[in-house]
């Protein structure tokens, strides 16, 4: 006769760092071995960490957890790295780096251009200079047409 599997669910302590080139997640999973942990990425961009181990003090008792994190589009889902050391599971989730005005080949058909990290102060400066240059050019053109027209009319009257 098989004994029934009794599971004890728990919520592991975790710390998430969302700075720099990589996002990192630390999950404290003391007494878990590497073979008892699973890190997977679902197609919807969800990072799922699953742990399940048999409890030593209970013959048929198991300890388990499931923790999920929603990943943004800026994360590289194929580059996730996990390492277990001293009872802490460290998961590194790199961000995709897309420089300004470079084609993104992973965006589907053709090349789409993505602007990242825009310096709005610089955009405002360049826009102001362009508007001033256009205004000066248009003003000069209108003024020269006006002067030429007056000059031609005065010559015809003589």
TrEMBL record:
Name the UniProt record assigns to this protein: SHSP domain-containing protein
Stated family: Belongs to the small heat shock protein (HSP20) family.
Listed transmembrane segments: 123-148
Signal peptide positions on this chain: none
Pfam families: HSP20 (PF00011)
Keywords on record: Membrane, Transmembrane, Transmembrane helix
Positions of the SHSP domain: 4-110
InterPro entries named among the record's database cross-references: A-crystallin/Hsp20_dom (IPR002068), HSP20-like_chaperone (IPR008978)
């Amino acid at each position: 006769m098989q004994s029934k599997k009794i599971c004890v669910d728990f919520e592991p302590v975790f710390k998430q760092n969302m700075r720099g080139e990589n996002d990192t997640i630390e999950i404290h999973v003391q007494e878990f071995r590497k073979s008892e942990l699973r890190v997977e990425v679902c197609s919807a961009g969800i990072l799922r960490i699953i742990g399940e181990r048999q409890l030593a003090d209970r013959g048929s008792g198991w300890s388990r957890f499931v923790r999920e994190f929603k990943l943004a589009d800026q994360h590289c889902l194929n580059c996730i790295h996990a390492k277990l050391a001293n009872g802490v599971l460290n998961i590194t989730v790199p961000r995709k780096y897309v420089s300004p005005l470079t084609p993104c080949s992973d965006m589907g058909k053709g090349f789409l251009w993505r602007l990242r990290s825009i310096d709005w102060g610089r955009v405002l400066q360049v826009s102001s200079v362009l508007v001033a240059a256009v205004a000066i050019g248009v003003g000069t053109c209108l003024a020269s047409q006006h002067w030429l027209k007056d000059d031609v009319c005065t010559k015809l009257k003589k």
